[in-house]
Each structure stands twice: as structure tokens, then as C-alpha cells.
Specification:
The chain has seven helices and seven strands, in the order ααββββαβββαααα. It is an alpha+beta fold and about 220 residues long. The radius of gyration is 21 Å and the shape is elongated. The strands form two sheets. The chain has a four-stranded mixed sheet with strand order 2-6-5-4.
Length: about 220
């Protein structure tokens, strides 16, 4: 589904035309949250991002496209750099952040408000190569497609997510025959994520398979 198709589909679910200008934002927010909740293979960098650092600082703004999970880092010689889970581990190596070296040996990612920073040890004039999960592309034009989510899961995963997320706003506008709309869409979300006994594979099992995990042909239970 492209953006225009998703907006038309949402208009069939929601009965209030006054909300239609908000649809694109709702859709993009839902996709961004899905990308935060799950490690989407399409957003995992295959080619590293080149990231120069100097001895002038130990905190660096990560690129605009960075979303989450720095999972690999090499220095300019191709030597692996240790990716630490916590800033405190990096600070324990040099609390004053004054030690220098030929290459960075350790890094950690920290959130500062809406921004994310890469912290390095030791100070070095180096060019790192970073692998991480990117942000999904923002859908702006009618023909834009959420390529990070397979087409067969667009309706099954995106729509329940955005309706549940915006339920208070949509409380009186959700159109279906169920007497408990929120529970209805929560059920649709579970089905989209985990599948059903007689239905297609859920999104979580699809991701497990994409990572090379065991194959599954249906059922509600997620695989580890």
C-alpha cells in the first residue's frame, strides 16, 4: 500500500472527514513505532556509515538517519570497536575524557532528549564505520510506500497500531460492528503480530524467519 491507498483505507474505517488531514501523520507515527518495537531487516544497514571523529571531543551527534541499535563498529584500520551497553562503562575507562590514542577502541550510544550521541574512548583522529538500524522513510507523497514493512503486513500491522495509538481521538469515529471497538482492534493487532491458528503467519514469526530462525506455517504463539 502506498500513502494514498492507506489514507483511503483509513477513511473507510474512520467516519469523521475532519480527521483526514491528520491521517498521514498518524500513519507515519505508527510506522515509526513499529520500527522502534521490532528489528526490521529492511532498516538494518548493510553498508556502514562513515563517521569521522577527532581528539577535539568525545561526544558526537549521530547521523540524522540513525534510529536505534548500533550493532557493529570498526575503526579506520578495520579493527572491531567495542560497543558498550551503557555510558557508565565508557566513563569508567576515563572519567575525565582526556586520554588519547591512535584509534577509538570503545563507543557507547546515549539519548539526549530527541537527539542521540555517540561517545568515544579514547580521544582519537579516526574514521569509524558504523552499522545500525535506520529510521523508516517519512511518507509524504501519495505514491510513497512504507518499504520497511512487507506489503502483506501493511494492513494487518499498521492499521491496528495506529488506531489503538490514536484511540482516544478516534473514540467515536471507529466504524465496525463490534460493541467494544478497542478490544476489536487489540485482537486485530494480536492476529497481525502473532498470526492465528487457521490464518497466515504473524509479523513476529515472519521476522524470526527473516533472521534465519525456524519456519512456521501458522499459529498464534510467537517464536523466541
Amino acid at each position: 500500500m502506498n500513502l494514498a491507498e492507506m489514507e483511503r483505507r483509513l477513511a473507510l474505517i474512520v467516519r469523521d472527514p475532519s480527521l483526514e488531514p491528520e491521517f498521514a501523520g498518524m500513519i507515519n507515527d505508527a510506522i515509526l513505532e513499529i520500527a522502534a518495537d521490532f528489528d526490521l531487516p529492511a532498516l538494518r544497514l548493510l553498508n556502514p556509515h562513515s563517521f569521522p571523529v577527532t581528539t577535539g571531543n568525545w561526544i558526537w551527534p549521530l547521523p540524522e538517519g540513525y534510529h536505534k541499535k548500533l550493532f557493529r563498529c570498526l575503526d579506520s584500520n578495520g579493527t572491531p570497536v567495542k560497543v558498550l551497553d551503557r555510558l557508565e562503562e565508557l566513563e569508567a575507562l576515563d572519567l575525565e575524557h582526556t586520554e588519547t590514542g591512535n584509534h577509538v577502541t570503545h563507543v557507547a550510544v546515549v539519548d539526549i532528549g530527541v537527539d542521540k550521541r555517540l561517545c568515544t574512548y579514547p580521544l582519537a583522529n579516526d574514521t569509524l564505520r558504523l552499522w545500525f538500524y535506520e529510521k523508516p522513510n517519512y511518507l509524504e507523497k501519495p505514491g510513497d510506500v512504507p518499504a520497511c514493512i512487507p506489503v502483506e503486513f501493511h494492513e494487518r500491522v499498521i492499521f491496528p497500531k495506529l488506531i489503538i495509538k490514536n484511540y482516544q481521538l478516534l473514540l467515536d469515529q471507529v466504524e465496525n460492528f463490534d460493541t467494544k471497538p478497542l478490544q476489536y482492534w487489540e485482537g486485530k493487532q494480536r492476529e497481525g503480530l502473532y498470526g492465528s491458528a487457521a490464518g497466515p503467519v504473524g509479523f513476529i514469526n515472519f521476522l524470526v524467519k527473516a533472521r534465519g530462525g525456524p519456519r512456521r506455517h501458522g499459529g498464534r504463539d510467537p517464536l523466541p
